[in-house]
Amino acid sequence: MNNLFKLIGLVLLIGLSACGSDDPASNSSITPSNGNPTDPTEVVVDDPSPGTEGPDVFVDKSLRPPAEFFELVEADMQMVHDTLAGRTKMRDGSTLTCEGLAKMYIERIFMHNDNPQPNGGLPISAVLSINPNALDIAKALDQKYIEDGGIGDRYLHCMPVLLKDNYDTVDFPSTSASFSMLGHQAGVDAPSVDGLRKAGALILGKAHQDEFAYFTTGFSGRTVLVTNPYNTQESSAGSSSGSGAALASNFAIGGTGSDTCQSIRHPSSVSGLVGIRPSIGVVSRKGIFPLSHIRNTGGPMTRSVRDSALMLTAMASIDPVDDPDTTLFPAEARPDTYLRFLDRDVYGVKGKKIGVLRSLGGNSTPAGTGEQGALIDTAVAKMESMGAEVYDVFLPSFVNRGGGSTHYDTNRYFFEFVRDGGKSPRKCLSSAFFATNADVLPSCAATEGILETLRVGPRTAGLVAVSASGDPGAKPTEAQLNAIVAERDYVTKVMNGELDALGEKQAMVLDSEGRPAQVVLDALVLSPGPSGGRTCDFGSTTQMGSIVVPVGFDSQAGTPRGMEIFVRRFDEGKGLGIAFDFEQATLHRRPPNIASSPVYANQTIGEFNSRAQMALMKAQFESPEDLPVETYIQALRDLTGL
Fold first, then answer.
1. Catalytic residues
2. For residues 38 and 453, what is the distance between their CA atoms, to the nearest angstrom?
3. Where are the domains of the chain?
4. CA 342, CA 347: separation in Å to the nearest integer?
C-alpha cells in the first residue's frame, strides 16, 4: 500500500501542476452496393470531392476475416457485427442480440468493478453508474436490426459506450463525479453523444473521473480511487480515469474522455488503449462540463484504432451557435468516414516522414524517459523498419498558452444547459463571485453555486475555490487567442519545413545522420503523460490533434505505455493511418488479468448505482457533507486571500 499512500500524498501537488479534464454534418448516406445491409466489405458513399461525378466505391480495408467464435474479452465492433450477422458464432450455439450483449457487459461490471484485485489489493472502481435505460435501448436497437435486415447505416450499431461523467445525456444525470452535482439532468444530449446515438451506439453508463477534472490521478469526488486494472497499486491517470480503466477491463467497447491537458492521452497510455484528442473544432464541446474551454475537447477512447475511427466519425459535428470553432473545419473538408484512412497501403507508415520530438520549450526529454522512453525508441525503430523516414525535432521556443477563465467557462456552460431545458440544483461555480454577462445566467443565489454547497470533495475544494476567485467574466482576450495562433503557426511551419520563416523563434530538424534538414513532416511522436516531463500542453496550446497507440509494457509498473502521434490541425486522418499500420504491425494491446467475485453477481442496476454513489462516504475520514463550515471557509481564505 505504500505506493497508494504516496500517490494520495502527492495528489494536491499534481492537481495544481497539471490540467486534467479534460453525425458530422458532411456525413453522406451509406448504402451497400450489393443491396445486402449486413455486408461490411463494400459500401457506396457520395463522393465528397468537388468536380467529380458518380459514387465513390469505398472498400473498408480495415476489416479482417471473421473470427470463428465470439469472445467478450477484447471484442470490438467488427466482432459484434460479424456475430449479429452469423459470420461469427456464439460458443454455446445461441444467437447474439444487442440486449444479450448489454447484459454481458453489465454482468461483467457487476462481477469485476468493485472486487479487490489480487494484482494490487484494491478494486478498479471504474464505473460510476449504469444507464437505467440501457436494456430498453438495446431492445429498441434489436428491433431496428430486424426491420432493416442488418445494421443499416448504423455503423456503431450496439456499441456499448461508457461516457465520462461530464458528458450531458438526456436520459440520466451527469455529475462530473461530484456530490455537489447530484440531480444535474440535461434536457438534451451533448452533440457528441447525439452523434454516437444516431450512429447506433448504446450508452451503457457513466465512468468515474477526477472530480470536475481538476486532477490527473483518478481521485473522484464520488469514489475513493480509480485504479489501474493491470496493477491496482498504480494510477489509472486522469482525468478520464474511469474511461481508461473501464475499457482496459473490457467493461464496454467504446468510451469517451475530455482532454484539457492530458486527460485522454495519459489514461489511454497507461491502459493500453487508443485515444484521440482531436483538433479543437472537430468535435463540439457543448454539453461537456468545462475546465478550460479554449484548451479542452472531447474524444474517443477504445481498444483499437478502427473503433476509435468509427467513434470519431460519429462524434464530430459542426455547431455554429455553441461552438463556433467547429465552423473552422468546414463540411466540405471533413471526411465522410475516418475509416477511409485505415488503408495500410495508402496511408500507412511506409514513406511517411516522422519527427521525434527531442525538446519542447524547457523540456529536454519529451519523447519519454526510463522504460517508456525506451519503448518509444523501439516503436520509432519499428516504424523506420516499416519504411518511415525518421528525424529529430527540437522546438525550444515553444511556450505553453491558455486563455479565458474556468469561472466564466463554467457559467457559460450552465447558461446553455438551462437554455436547453436542463434541470439542476446548481447554476454557477460560485454565487459569491457571480457576475452577469449577456451569455451567462442572470442570477445565481446561495447554494445554487457549486462552491457554496459544501459538497465538493475535500481534495477538490481548494481548487474549486481558486477557480471561483478568478474573473467570472473573463473570456479569452484577443491577445491570448493570437498567442495560441502564433504557437500553432510556429509548430506548423516547422512541420512544413519552413524553418527560414520562423522569425525570432528557434527550431531545428536533424536527419538520421545528425545533419540539419528542411523537410515536410507527416507527424511528430512524443510521450503522453509525465514520463519525460510535462508534454500535454503541446496539443492543448496548439489545439492540434493527437492519437495515442500502445507501444508495450513497463515491466517495473506492470502497466502498458503508449506513444502520442501528433498531427497538423484537422489532419487526424493521417495520424489514424499511421497509428493503424503501427498497431497492426505490433499488436501490443493485451488485456489485464482481473478477478471476478460471485458476491457482486446478483444485483440490480439500481443497487449498483446506489452503492457506487455511497462509496466515498464509507471510505473517507470525513465526508464532504460533514466538513465543518469554519474549516471550509478558512481553507478558502488561505488559498485565495479573499
1. 164, 239, 263
2. 52
3. 406-475+603-640
4. 7
